[in-house]
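Per reviewer request, we include the raw input and output of the structure prediction for the construct analysed in the revised manuscript.
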Amino acid sequence: MYFYFSASVLSAIKLDGIYYGIIHDNVKHINVQDDRPVFVEVCPLNAKSGQINFLLDQDFLSHPPDNVWVVNLRGGYLIKFALPQDDSPFCLLSQEKAQNLLVTAYKENGLKISIETPTDFCLEQFSLCVDSAKIYTFSLSGEQFVGITFFGKDNYSAVYKVGGKIEKLLFLPATLFLENNLLKTEQNFLDMAKHKVIVTWEYLGGKLVESNRSVSAKKSLNVGVLPQKLVPYAFLEELLAGGNVADFTCGKVKENAYKLKNYLGDFIGVFPPPVFRSAEEVGIVLPSDCGYKVDYLTFEFEGNKICNIKKSAE
């Protein structure tokens, strides 16, 4: 079975005591025989994060630690280690004081945010590598909220309702901003079209829900001249961003475009098939109760447009 490893910080990986290589954003893979589990050691090179040791068996794959993400690739597994960037002393990133409210974003053995009100206190740690942070306080529908954006290689934002019990209502890879007393997020995708998505949020029924989505792209993709192998990826990336997929489809798929999200699910990523899958498949990543799962899709074409989409059964 194939296993793929990556880590949030530069790390060395050893298998049964033998050095295997370096992992970070790059991915190392191994093909393990089923006769016995391998003993894995992940050693962060910054010498500040704790080493992770484990037997690569079904118990680990089914119940990984909180800082390990396991994705079943249906024939293999992707394992990512979310390790703290450092164990640095206290460093204040941002602080905001308002009436009956104190919000602090700081680093101290990892990235943390504390929110204090007269009736509640919240302390949360994030496995993110960031350089700075910005805090917002605002009101929606008569309720008080705190928003924070963490700036780094990737930007992430969180929104908390702070009236009464503190609740986190939103966490996503985007940048927050306020415009005309409206909460908005901006997300820039590293896809082929370089999509930019701006979402306006409203507080409804105890949740933050989308009230408007604006999708634009820096690059215009001409489906007629795009290599057919890339058309499914461009199509799925357009669908993921919430854009218009009409130019990529024809026939029944085009007529039933409004059913696509329900059929494919709330996928969060697109990837080429691993070596143990068919080269004709395209993978999508979806959240699941135990972390993440994947589906594989095959596409049929008329000309260069998609006329049928099938989910792989196995």
